[in-house]
Amino acid sequence: MFEKLKRILIGKPLPNEAEKTEKYGVLWGLPILSSDAISSVAYAGQEILYVLLPAIGFLAFKEISVVTAAIIILLFILMLSYRQTIENYPNGGGAFIVAKDNLGVLAGIVAGAALSVDYILTVAVSISSGVDQIVTALEFLKPYKIALCLFLVLFLMIGNLRGIRESSRIFGIPAYAFMFSILALIIAGYIKLKMGYVPPEPKINYPTHPVTLVLLLKAFASGCTALTGIEAVSNAVPNFKDPATKHAKTVLLLLSLIILVLFGGTTLLATHYHIVPTEGAMLVLMAQEIFGKSFMFYVVAATTFIILVFAANTAFSGFPMLVAVMAKEEFVPRQLSLKGDKLSYSNGIIILALVSALLIVAFNGNVTALIGLYAVGVFISFTLSQSGMFVRWLKNKGSHWHIKAFINGFGALTTFVVVIIIAITKFKEGAWIVVFLIPLLVFAMIKVKLHYIAVADQLRVTPEDKELLDVEHNIYRNRVIVPIESLNKASIRALRFAKTISDNVVAFNVSINEEQAKKLQERYKMLNCSIPLVIRYSPYRKILEPLLEYIKSEEYNYQKGDMITVIIPKFTVQRWWQKILHNHTWLFIEKELLKHKHIVVSVMPLQLKDDDVVLKKKNKPLWKVLEED
Fold it and tell me: Any stretches that span the bilayer, and where are they (predicted)?
C-alpha cells in the first residue's frame, strides 16, 4: 500500500545513469535558485516601512529610498563575491566548504549551522508571507491560514521528491509569471503618475520623531531580507549542466539585475503611492491602487502568492545539497547524503519540510515574528564565506589576486557589520533565538563528527586483522551469505562466524557506483581470504532485490532443500542519540528475508565502546582530532 502511494506521488525511480538529465541550465536554474531572493520584493520594502512609519510618519516614504539604495549596493558586493566562490568551489557546499577549507573546521561548522537555520526559516517565512498575500485579497480564507501553510509545505516537499527536473518545471514558470507581473505593475504605476494621477493622502496618525542613524540601521536590517537566497546559487553549482560554473555565474548575475529592477522599482513606487502596509500586504495594496479590482490586480495578487510559496523551493534546492555535503564530511547523520528514488537528497527534503512546518505552527504563521529570526543566519554565512575567500587569495595569490582579495575582504567586512546591526536591532524580536540556536547546532555537529571518528577507529581493518579469519570449522549442510556494505571489523566478525558454520560462504556487496566497488575489491584482497566476494551493481540503489536475485541465479546454484543463512553484520553504539546517526538497513533486510522459508537470518553484533573512551586514547585536544581527520 505504502509503495503504491509512493509511486503515485513521486513517480517511478530513476537509475544512477539518469543523473545527467536531472540537471538544469540557465532557463530553469534561474527561477529555481532565485525564487527566494526575487520573492523578497513582496515583503522587504514592506518590512522597511513597518520600522519607519511608526517612528517618522510621512517621512518614511522619503527615507525608504535611502535604505533601498544601501541594500542594492550590498547586493552587488555579494554578487561579485559569490561569483568568485562559484569559480573556485564548483562542487557546491558554499559557505560551509569555503569556511572549512580556509578558516578551519569550527568556522565551517558555524557557517553550515547558520545557513541551515536560514534555509529552514526561508520556508517558514516565504510560505507564511505568501498566505498573507492571498488572505489579504481573499479575506474569507483568514481562518484557514495555518492549514493552508501546512498544505503548501507538503506540496513543496512532494514536488521536490519528484526530482530536480520535474520540480524545475513545476516551480519555474510561476517565478517568471511573477517577474513579468511586477514589471507590469511598475511600468503601469509610473505611466499612471505621468498621466496626472494623484494618489490619495494616507491616514497616518503616528507621531513624528527625528530621523536617527539607529532608526535607519533598524530599517536596513529589516530590508536585508531581500538578500537572502543569494548564496543558494553557489551551494547548488553541481545541479547545473556543464559548464556548471558558467551557468551558475550567469544565473547569479541575472538574479542581481532582476532584484535591482523589481525591488528598487516597487520601493520607489511606494514613495509615490504612499502605501501603508499595516492595512495589508504592500504589493497587493499597490496593485489595487494602480489597477483597481481589475484582472491585473488578481494577477499580481496570485503571482505574488505563488512566488512567495515557491520561494521556499530555493531552500528545498539548497538545504538538501548543503546537508548532503556536510553528511559526507560526517558533521550530520550520513543518511542525509543518500539519494532517493528520483536522485534527489530525499531525507534532507523531508527534514526541511517537517522542521519548517513546526516553526509555522509555533509562530502561528506570523511573518513579522519569524522575520526577526530570518537574516542573522544567512549574514553569518555570508561573512564566513567571504572571509574564507579573502584568506584563500592571501595564501594562494594567483592572477589579479589583489582585486579579488579586495572584493571578498570588503564583502566580509560589510556583511559582518550587517550581522552586528541585525543581531542588535532584531535581538528582542526573535534574533536571540538564532543567536543561541547556532551554538547549540555547532555543538551537536561536533558531537556527531567525534562519534563517527570513534566508530571508524573501532571498525578500521589493518593487515594484521586477516588472522581473525583463520579458524577451524565444522562442515554444515547450510550455505551462508554475509552481506557487507564495507570492509570493517563488524563485517570481518560476521565472516569469521560464517566460517564456523559452513564451508560454503559468500561475502555479498551491493554497490551503487563503480568506484565504491573497486575500493572494496582492493581492500578485500588485502585479507587474502578464502571466502569469495560477489559484488552486484544496483542502478536504482536497491539493496534487498539484488541479494534475492543472486540467490535465485544460476551462478549461486541454489538446490531445492538447501538452507541459506544470511548473517548480517551490525555494530551497536552506547548512547541513544548515536543510534540516529547510523543506517538501520539491516532491520528492513531482516524483515523481508524472513518471508522466505528457506532463508535463516542471523544478526552478528559488534559492541562499540563509548566515544569518550576511544577519543581519550588519542591523547590529543578534540580540536586537533577534528583538524587531522
Answer: 64-82, 103-124, 144-161, 173-191, 211-230, 251-275, 295-322, 343-363, 369-393, 405-424, 430-450
